[in-house]
Amino acid sequence: MPLEVPGVSGVPGASGASGVSDEERLAQLGYRQTLARSMSGFANFAVSFTIISVLSGCMTMYGYGMTTGGPAMITWGWVGVGLMTLIVGLAMAEVCSSYPTSAGLYFWAHRMAPERSRAAWAWFTGWFNVLGQIAVTAGVDFGAASFLNAYLDLQFDFAATPGHTIALFGIILLLHAVLNTFGVRIVAVLNSVSVWWHVIGVLVIVGALAFVPDHHQSSSVVFGEFVNRTGWDSGFYVGLLSLLMAQYTFTGYDASAHMTEETNDASTAGPRGIVRSIWLSWIAGFVLLVGMTFAIQSYDGSLESTTGVPPAQILMDALGASGGKALLLVIIAAQLFCGMASVTANSRMIYAFSRDGALPFSRVWHRINPSTRTPTNAVWLAAGGALVLGLPYLINETAYAAVTSIATIGLYIAYVIPTFLRLRLGDRFERGPWHLGRWSRPVGVVAVGWVALITVLFMLPQVHPVTLETFNYAPVAVAAVLGFAGVWWLVSARRWFLDPHHPKNAVAHAAPLAEPGALRP
After folding, report:
1. Residue 145 to residue 136: CA distance in whole angstroms
2. What keyword terms does UniProt attach to this protein (predicted)?
3. Is the bond preceding 433 in cis, omega lying within 30 degrees of 0?
4. How many domains are there within the chain?
5. Is there a domain that residue 502 lies in?
6. Of 200, 213, 408, 465, which residue is 20 to 30 A from 487 by alpha carbon distance?
7. Beta-bridge partner residues of 374
8. CA–CA separation, 126 vs 145, rounded Å?
9. In whole angstroms, how far apart are CA 461 and each of 220, 388, 475, 476, 506?
10. How far is CA 51 from CA 146, 197, 346, in A?
11. Cβ neighbours of residue 448 closer than 8 Å, sequence gap 6 or more
12. Per-residue pLDDT, 16
């Protein structure tokens, strides 16, 4: 089956994974089929596309972009970051084709790392992935709460205060946890609906903003005006910081990998889901951002909106109260779709990682609901962890930007570790039916370099002066999780994690991880 990227080809039969069923391939990787495998390739793509959600990431971070780089960086930052994200995604997709399991990134790391250190590589990759997944869930649902609070303020005078936003945040997380627990079939349908909602929603919003307002910004403003309201003097530094808006939006597409145990033809559907979700989001996001920026009526008025959400004010100014509020509801619905899918993907990662004993109380988190065949306990851990990450907003006005930094850092480190290990393997890497051919190495090198840059960048202070209210607590959160994972590794986990011969794993799983044909429950 051909890889749908110019200059790159997929070759069926390129690995030992070819010619076997999804269940047989999963067994070869050391896992028994326990999740319901009923997801189509489109449904797999739909989950990642929904989690990327340009109507969530682009809109919730738009105000950040307006103060950190302004129109020029909103536009060109999106173009550049989208290209680099596609490169990272291509490298990930190639590995996904070889190892289609819900364990995803940390399993890939374990398979490709040097034998003596493979458990450690897998352990820390998994913890970065868990941190990033929970932070993405927090960021998405917090953004939805902010936009919903803005709508309620406009419609019912429900003031946009930190307390109100956090209350709505908790309610939305509760809704998504309940849906993923009791409405599994509904969630599957809504994920498919979400794709069309996003595409049609972007076209409707941009169309309205293009034809309704009497006034539009000039092209020189949209594509060339740089704005710096961060307090920092260096325009170069601020321009780099502005990339967070786009890079945070381009997160969550590892969901296609985590859903492979529920996807038919997983070795090709999973990789395609990753790549398609990125390039379609890249196009849709560019159209949305350019349309929104052209329609700004008052730059200062939008930033100083009492709703606390600049896009809401832009819509109101450009389309009037009724039209603005109607399209605000379109955005809110898309954000709710995104949060719902994020909880789904997050729970699968938690399920897989706890299946290997890597989380506290793992036996609780990897239990499968016998009626739905889904990990419902993991769903509630995903929602609860996201709530904890969002609570600092009550005392820190830049907490949302910190949450997005945590999500971006955690996920992209987890994304690129398998790519780095794949590069080290060279020709020893066992390709799946979907691969990059001769482009594999240059794509991997660029991906690793890009992630190294943004990892450092998004830990830096975003606002000057740095105070308790403006402190970027992303490094603290990352250090706390890594510290916990590191201590646990040294004290205990290094003796048993992913060791098929350890009594703990023999009792828990009754089968080794890495031997072909071995099954685990």
Report:
1. 14
2. Membrane, Transmembrane, Transmembrane helix, Transport
3. no
4. 1
5. no
6. 408
7. 369
8. 28
9. 29, 22, 10, 12, 47
10. 17, 13, 11
11. 416, 419, 420, 423
12. 39
Residue 126 near residue 353, CB atoms below 8 Å: yes
Q: Which two tokens stand for residue 233?
A: 């003097």
Rounded to 5°, the CA angle 107-50-134 comes to 50
State the pairing for strand pair 68-69/227-228.
antiparallel
Q: Which of 163, 122, 129 is nearest to 146 (CA)?
A: 163
Which residues make Cβ contacts (< 8 Å) with residue 456, sequence separation at least 6?
Answer: none
Q: 228 phi and psi, to 5 degrees?
A: -130, 105
| CA torsion through residues 496, 414, 96, 376, sign | positive
Residue 69: strand pairing partners: 227
Give the whole-angstrom CA distance, residue 116 versus residue 124. Answer: 15
Q: How confident is the model at residue 503 (pLDDT cuts 50, 70, 90)?
A: low
- For residue 421, pLDDT over 60 is answered with yes
Cβ(86)–Cβ(282) below 8 Å: yes
DSSP type of residue 494: G
Report the chain's mean pLDDT, rounded to a whole number: 87
CA pseudo-torsion sign 23, 28, 29, 33: positive
What six digits make up the tokens of 102? 């819900």
Q: How big is the CA angle at 413 (ends 407 and 417), to the nearest 5 degrees?
A: 150
Please tell me the pTM assigned to this model.
0.86
Whether 337 is in a domain gets the answer yes
Angle value at C-alpha 393, between 392 and 397, nearest 5 degrees: 120
Kindly state whether residue 482 falls inside one of the protein's structural domains: yes
In one-letter notation, the amino acid at residue 132 is G
pLDDT digits (tens, 9 = 90+) for 47-73: 889 889 899 999 999 999 999 999 999
Structure tokens given for 9: 């080809």
Q: Which two tokens stand for residue 239?
A: 């321009």
Rg, Å, the chain Cα set: 22
Summarised one tens digit per residue, pLDDT across range 270-305 is: 999 999 999 999 999 999 999 999 999 999 999 999
Task: Determine the residue type at 288.
Answer: L
Residue 24 falls inside a structural domain: no
From residue 140, alpha-carbon distances to 208, 312, 345, 401, 426 in Å are 25, 17, 13, 12, 37
pLDDT value for 134: 92
pLDDT higher at 326 or 115: 326
CB-CB contact of 270 with 99 (8 Å): no
CATH code for position 294: 1.20.1740.10
As a whole number of angstroms, the distance between CA 92 and CA 109 comes to 11
Domain that holds residue 103: 37-495
- CA torsion angle for 281, 122, 1, 190 (degrees, to 10)? -40
- Other C-beta atoms closer than 10 Å to the C-beta of 468 total 8
* CB atoms closer than 10 angstroms to residue 201: 21
